[in-house]
Structure formats: structure tokens, C-alpha cells
Amino acid sequence: MAEAPNVFSKQYMLTAGPTPLPPRVSQVMAEPVLYHRAPAFVDIYARCLERLDGVFQTRNPVLCFAASGTGAMESAVANLVAPGEPAVVASCGKFGQRWAELCDAYGAATTHVEFEWGERVDPPRLDAAISGLDSRPGTVYVTQSETSTGVVNDIRALNEVALAHGAVLCVDAISGLGAVDLPQDEWGVDVVVSGSQKSLMCPPGLAFASVSERAMALAADGAGVHPPSRYYFDWARIADGQAQKPPNSAFTPAVTLFRGLDVALELIFAEGLGTVFERHAILARAARAGIEAIGLERFGADDPDANVITAASLPAEIDGAKVPKLMRDRYGVTVAGGQGHLKGRIVRIAHCGYYGGFDIVVALTALEMALRDLGAEVERGAGAAAAQGVFADAGTVPEPVAG
Ligand SMILES: *Cc1c(COP(=O)(O)O)cnc(C)c1O
């Protein structure tokens, strides 16, 4: 059923990254470009660095790179692993695997503890795997929100495992930071990385690494590599620039994206970080209820913290790859399908960032319509009704600050 995409109608982008932008974020980025050493920009830059500490819930410097999120992940490998030295990766999906690919690319002796896609990383099993190694790993790499499946890992418990073995935990929180609570300093997590285009309501292009003093010291050791094989991603170089008063970036920052980030972070704090997390929790409950009401099975572990994206398994009797395609081409509603071996088997409804209750209703309704188009027996409006029920129980249709 090939058909021309209906690109002339209003489009609804309901994906997990890039995510929709608040209008004020788009508008500020249309203003003239600022010179990065002029006070007009330096003020914005300093404010962003301060507010980033707020969303990372840390006193660490949050190091900023002009890169997609993977750049910050690469920095956490380039600064901490050395060829031939042990590093441990615990993964349960496509993004977790990326840590292992990065460690391999930098020549680490990588131990990759893999869990089924859709499961959570099990802390006791990770502990046993590390205990079984001949030499102690300096670093353990994990994913907070595994965006390929919707799973959110128990970072607090995984951090305790890493600390018990004297290792530094590096957490990929690219999709989950700003959606699910991760109080870095309170939990004592050494390294948290994120990116601008998911829960932080900005376009792609900024990557962040919040690095503890302990991890900084380990990196300064060069992880045994002399000369260290990094330059742009060298944490010390970036930290030195950001620590100056006022901050003076080592390289040209993505000035336009920082203007957007400044507004996005203002909106997050106007709503309140706790309220933002609660909004994500209610949206996820609505998505879960809607998917069950449609008659689909939810994909992934049952978990009240899985509030970043919600994945549904598609019925075996329909061609699952057609579902997101029909939703987009016929109805103008873009959602993500599955990645890797989950392609054609799941559909993912995102609710991370600038999302509200009515976005969930749109996603569920378009999903029902596409499923019916493909011959599945789905009751009209079942998903929307279930979502409404969740909003009624919560006493609110959660919406982000308008911006
Ligand atoms: C999106 C995402 C990435 C990749 O980020 P890029 O910005 O595409 O480099 C990595 N990890 C997770 C968990 C993600 O959601």
C-alpha cells in the first residue's frame, strides 16, 4: 500500500529525539549570532552552565561539547580507558551496545555483560560478572533510559555495584536526564552524560558530561596512555575553560544552540524539576494504559520509572514495519518503530521533553487507526479513553510550561 506521504498537512512529531521544541526555544535561535567572547554571549553561557548543574543535580562542572550525545559518551571512554585495560559494559539494548563499541574502538579489554532487550540490567548479575574478572576494571558503563526498548535501569543500585568494586560508573542519560530523577551527587555517581535533543527540549548538537573530581583525577592519569589519545574531548581542557570567571570556552561553543538551551532550561525550572518528573510519570502511565486498552502487549519490564518512552509489541499477524510508516505518511504522526532486531516488532511512543497529555492521545489514536487500516481488530477510541482515565485519576492533564 505505497502512498505519497501527506507532507502538506500539519505534522505531529512524537519521537524520542529530536523532540518537539517549545516555540520560545525556536524563536530565540532565529536571532543574530553572537560573538562567543562578547559579554552578551558569555552571560548566556554562564547561566546555562549554572542551570545545567541544576538538572544534573550536581556541583560538578558539566562539560559541554558541540556534538550529538554520542560525543559525550565518546569523551567518557577517551578520558577513562586505555588500550589493554579492563572496562565493563552492562547493556540491555541498542544504546548500551554503543558503550561496548566505543570501548572496543579505544582498545579496552572490554567485558560486555548483555541482557535481553526489554529486560533491565540486573545489579547482582553485574556484580557477579565483575567479581569473576582477573583484574579490577577502572570503569563500568551503563545506560539510564535505554531508548531502544523503553527500559529505565536502576542507576542507584548499579552505582553501588561499581563503587563496591572501586570502579567509576559512567551513565548514558541522553534520553532520561530531565525526565526521570537521577540525583547525581546524592547517589555519588561519578560520570553522567546527556544530549540536548531529548528531554532537554533543544535541537540536536550539544553534548554534556558531568564529571566528578574522582573521575577527573582518573582521566588526568591519562589512564596510563601517554600521550593521551584525545584532544577536543579532553575533559581537563574543557573544564579549565569553563572554570574561568567568567567562563571562557576552550573552543567555539555552538552559540545558537546555547541560546536555545538557555530558554529551555529556564522553562524546566519554571515548571520545577519535580513537576517535570511527575508530568513524565503521568504521561507514561497514560501511554501504558492506552496501549493495553488497544489490546497490544507492552514491551519491556514492568516499571513505574520507565517514563521516557513506552514501547508496544505489534501483533505478529500484521506487518509491523508498516505501522509507523502509515502513521506518518497517512496521518502525519511520526513515532519511532523498533531498532535492530526489534524492527517491525515494536512501536515506540515518546513522552520525553516538550510533551503533554494531548500528545499521548494523538499518538494512541493514530496508532489505533493505523492498526485498523492493517486489519487488526481494535476498538475505536479505546486508547484515548484509557489515557483520559489516567488523567482523571491524576486530577490533571499534564502539560509542560507553554514556552
Ligand atoms: C539518543 C540516544 C543516544 C545517541 O545520541 P546521539 O545524540 O544520537 O548521538 C545514546 N544513548 C541513548 C540512551 C539515547 O537515547
Which labels suit this protein?
403 residues; alpha/beta; Aspartate Aminotransferase, domain 2; Aspartate Aminotransferase, domain 1; 2 domains; globular; binds pyridoxal-5'-phosphate
Give the name of the CATH superfamily of the largest domain: Type I PLP-dependent aspartate aminotransferase-like (Major domain)
What ligands does this structure carry? pyridoxal-5'-phosphate
- Helix-strand pattern: EHHEHEHEHEEEHEHEEHHHHEEHEEEHH
* CATH architecture tag of the largest domain: 3-Layer(aba) Sandwich
The tally of beta strands, per DSSP, is 15
What is the residue-averaged pLDDT? 95
Supply the number of helical segments: 14
- The shape, in one word, is globular
Q: What is the spatial order of strands in the main beta sheet?
A: 2-10-9-8-5-3-4
What fraction of residues sit in β-strands?
15-25%
Major sheet description? 7 strands, mixed
Structure classification: alpha/beta
How would you explain this protein's 3D organization?
The protein is an alpha/beta fold and 403 residues long. It has two domains: 24-268, Aspartate Aminotransferase, domain 2 (3-Layer(aba) Sandwich); 272-393, Aspartate Aminotransferase, domain 1 (Alpha-Beta Complex), CATH 3.90.1150.10. The protein is 41% helix and 15% strand. The protein has 14 helices and 15 strands. The protein has helices spanning 23-28, 39-56, 69-78, 94-105, 123-131, 155-164, 184-187, 213-220, 235-243, 255-271, 273-294, 322-331, 357-373, 382-394; strands at 12-13, 62-66, 86-91, 109-114, 139-143, 145-146, 151-152, 168-172, 191-195, 206-211, 297-299, 309-313, 333-334, 336-337, 346-350. The strands form four sheets. Strands 2-10-9-8-5-3-4 form a seven-stranded mixed beta sheet, with helices on both faces. A four-stranded antiparallel beta sheet has the order 11-12-15-14, covered by helices on one side. The protein has a two-stranded parallel sheet with strand order 1-13. The structure holds pyridoxal-5'-phosphate. Pyridoxal-5'-phosphate binds next to helix 3.
